[in-house]
Structures are given as C-alpha cells and as structure tokens.
C-alpha cells in the first residue's frame, strides 16, 4: 500500500483520509503549520489535493520541488463563488485547475478525478441508486492506472471508471461543477454524481 498525503482536512479531505485508512493505506493529513505540508508530501508516493480550488495553484506551486516525480491527485474545482457560497463561474475558463497545475509542476504526475460528484459519493459510490462515473484526466498512463486502483479501494467498480485522456480533458469535468448549484437548489444536498449512461 502507498503512503498518501492529503492536503486539505475539510469534508472532502477528511472523508478521503478515513476511507483510504480503512482500505489499509498509510495516510497523513498535515496541519496548517509552516512547513507541515512539505514535510508530509516529501515522504509520500501519492499526494491528494483536497484544498479549496481557488487557492490550490498557489499552495501547490510552493511545493514544486517536493512534488517532483510524485502522483498528485487533484479532486478540487477552481471556481468563483456567488453570494450564496455556491460555484457561480470557473476560475480558469477555457482551461482547468489540473492543466494549470501540470503547467506549473511539469515534473509532477497530475491526475484529475472525483470532481464531478457531491463529496459523500467519492468514498461511497454505491450509495446512489444508479452507477456513477469517476473520470480520469492526465498525461501519465501509469499514474492513471495507480489512481484507478485507489478508486477501487474506495468502492468504485472498474466499469464505473472512465479514462478521458490527457490532462486537457479535465476542463470538461471541471466545467460540470456549474451543474452543482442548480442541482442543490432543486434537490438539496442529497448525494449525486455525473454519470454516463450507456
């Protein structure tokens, strides 16, 4: 099992930390003290970005040397929030947070996933009545295979995982965040996910 560092200790990061620990992985969630993130990431084979997307690029660029040759799983969406705190627009229209990260961290293996669902589904996809889809975007096929394995540890069936291709495909999945405020206003915070019906 891999040592995994999760950056972000909110509902997303905390949920992933619990689920991956239960699956047998060694998981570290650094606090916000100076240097804690770099220290935790230095010894990790995999780092998960679960920090708020609007500040992720700045935070992770500061760890550029530490993240060299590391798999960075990006589950965040970079948005401009409206007055109600829900996403109102994309921070990187015509691009994506994942692409911005890959450009800023050329020696890091970026994989975008788990960003097209409400957070409870990330670690318990079977709670939905219909099969959800987890998408993978990234330029490193080997890294995506490793991430797909982690998803199965979280309860995702292989047939529920779709590799979309290179990191540029993340702009499509990140744009799906624009569905979220409307779905929440219509149905409340009931768990949901984007799914491809075949």
What does this protein structure show overall?
By secondary structure, this protein is of the alpha/beta class. The protein has a single domain, classed as NAD(P)-binding Rossmann-like Domain (Rossmann fold). Helix content is 34%, strand content 18%. The protein has eight helices and nine strands. The strands form three sheets. Strands 2-1-3-4-7 form a five-stranded parallel beta sheet, sandwiched between helices. Helix 1 links the parallel strand 1 and strand 2. Helix 3 packs parallel to helix 4. The model has no long low-confidence stretch (mean pLDDT 96).
Question: In a nutshell, what does this entry contain?
Answer:
By secondary structure, the protein is α/β, with parallel strands linked by helices. The protein is built from eight helices and nine strands.
Record the SSE blueprint:
Blueprint lengths: L2 E5 L3 H12 L3 E3 L7 H7 L3 E4 L3 H9 L9 E4 L4 E3 L5 E4 L6 H8 L4 E4 L6 H5 L10 E4 L3 H13 L7 E5 L4 H6 L4 H8 L11
Parallel strand pairs: 1-2, 1-3, 3-4, 4-7, 8-9
Antiparallel strand pairs: 5-6
CATH secondary-structure class: Alpha Beta
Radius of gyration: 16 Å
Number of helices: 8
By DSSP, the count of extended strands is 9
* Structure classification: alpha/beta
Biggest sheet, in brief?
5 strands, parallel
Based on Cα principal axes, name the global outline: globular
CATH H-level name... which superfamily?
Answer: NAD(P)-binding Rossmann-like Domain
Distance between the termini: 33 Å
